[in-house]
Amino acid sequence: MRTTGSAALVLFLFLSPTLAWPQTTVPDQQSGPAQEQQTQQSGSAGAAASQSDAAPQSKPKTAVPTPASPVPTPADQKTDNWEGKQTKRMYGIVPNFAAVSANTLLPPLSVREKFWLATQDSVDYSSFIWAGVLAGQSFALNSYPELGHGAAGYGRYYWRAFADQASGAFFTEAIVPALRHEDPRYYTLGHGGFFRRTGYALSRVVLTKTDSGSTSFNFSEIVGNGMEAGLSNLYYPPEERGLRKTAENWGTGLESAALNNVIKEFWPDIRHKLLRRK
User: Fold this and answer.
1) Which long-range contacts (CB under 8 A, 24 or more apart) does 238-241 make?
2) Are residues 167 and 43 part of one domain?
3) 258 close to 202: Cβ distance less than 8 angstroms
4) Over residues 75-84, mean pLDDT
5) Percent helix, percent strand, percent coil in the chain, to nearest 5
6) What is the pLDDT of residues 183-225, one digit of tens each?
7) Range of 55's domain?
8) N or C end: fewer C-beta atoms under 10 angstroms in the chain?
9) Are residues 54 and 185 in the same domain?
10) Tally of structural domains, the chain
């Protein structure tokens, strides 16, 4: 429909000088006898006069397309808008690959793209750093005494922390989304008050977009974190296993997901208002 309307507009602008032309040729009809006398004296002179009369008709046509040149400027101005605009990383370090800018419609991810998204979040250089931070916290608090102390003990904390976040990424961003045809990305709201946007971010833990564009229950987050919590029973000490521990780890995963959503929602505001960047 847009193409047809544009073509009709261009055609109208192209024909408008031709429609206006008879108004400019009316005064020339008053000099009819003089033109007939010139035609009788010299046929070639009449032909030359007709060519000179036709020349002005082509001049208005060349200036018609110029009004269309300012059209792209609104789009250019829109791209400079910082509201709801996400970046690939937060503070240039923390990965933010799954965040989508506000008012942005993207095609669904293929199965391969979902696994690539999970891979990016799992093996990014910051993931190794973050695993070290989590391992250091648990090590300092002696959260799992069975893992021991010293460098060897810290190493046991470290690889388990890395396995937790990697398996969580693959369950919530690749495996379950591929099976359930869900979109694992976070779509930024970007407008409204603080409480409205916070409520929206928290609701994305239980609600998500599907590959077809509709909204459904977020199996990827709810079930995916449960699967990650269940898998951890395979590599944590026996004292840290069981139904109660699994439920605690599942709740911790959902809590982290909710916090991550809130941070993603307000990251464009933090970046613009605090870091003074667009």
Assistant:
1) 239/146, 240/144, 240/146
2) no
3) yes
4) 59
5) 70, 5, 25
6) 999 999 999 999 999 999 999 999 999 999 999 999 999 999 9
7) 2-68
8) N
9) no
10) 2
